[in-house]
Amino acid sequence: MSLHLGKILAQFVIRGDAGAVVPFVSGHIHDTYRVRNTAPGCPEYLLQRINHHIFRQIPQLMENIGRVTAHLRQKLMAVPGNDPDRQTLTVIYTLDGSSFHRDPDGNFWRLYLLIPGAKSYDLVRTPAQAYQGGKAFGRFGALLADLPAAELHETLPHFHDIERRLRIFAAVLAADSRGRAREIAPEVAFVNRRAGEMTAILQLGREGKLPLRITHNDTKFNNVLLDEHEQALCVVDLDTVMPGYVACDFGDSIRTTACTAAEDEADLSRIDFDTGMFEACARGYLEEMGSFLTPAEVASLPLGCKLMPYLMGVRFLTDYLDGDTYYKTAFPGHNLQRARAQFAYLSRMEKVYPGLRRIIHSLIP
Ligand code: GN1
Ligand code: MG
How far is it, in rounded angstroms, from Cα 143 to Cα 224? Predict the structure, then answer.
């Protein structure tokens, strides 16, 4: 273990002795490490350096996570047979009782219990997995349904506000600081043709017709941990848990389960919308969450499925035009490739869209 990481770990209340610290695969935003334990019977941990260029209010972010995980733990403990250490993330506090540590270089660090025996997948392989993915996010929403949305900070304001995302896209496109606008004329036309339709959820929210709930806001399939029997175990990546609309959580879970290829697939001919996976994920989600939803929320779910790949595509394209400053990228043009994959997926979905509403309605309890 490096001296630096050792000093950071020494700030936290750890059981046993921290051993090797190894980089751990994770999302596009933070740096994550797995911390082994040399003491028998003591847990492993997950150490993260939080990206403070993206998350600028880290005390509020960690307060949200503390609040949500405490609520989940309390709800889980009320049911015999549950195992909260595995069914929700557990924040490990520092010696002085803080949920994060700020190092002398100004970096922010946090520590979670590592959940043993759990797996996550970037790509869904079977409808059974898609069902478990939907179930995990539905259960997450249901367990938080009694925590008032106003109790959480909006740590990334307007995160899923497509109107604002489109305004930023237009400004970055006009500025064209990297001279990349020329190559993306078809994508710009794709975005513009659909802009009007995509604002409906925001408009209904503003008119008070869709409630704000506590939503996860990053319901990718790889943010679900499955247990050794491939059953939904735990929802991770709680950074964006904030007030939001359920259509976004539903739509993003579908985006990553019903798509037949990776989020950044280069070969667009491999991208399709798998209606069987859609049905399985929707069934899992609605079994848990269906009875909490208002009729207007149910009606908003299909549009959520369109909105999320559209919004992700707009964000990836904006970052590409802007010189790739937000998302981690593995090669030049990665953000453009991601945007193209999102738009290809949306196009395939559009062909079967009328059927989605029917499937959703058949699944409402
Ligand atoms: C980012 O943390 P990660 O990589 O799962 C992003 C999400 C996007 C996602 C796309 C804070 O999530 O909004 O859906 O990439 N998170 C943030 O893969 O911007
Ligand atoms: Mg995330």
Answer: 15
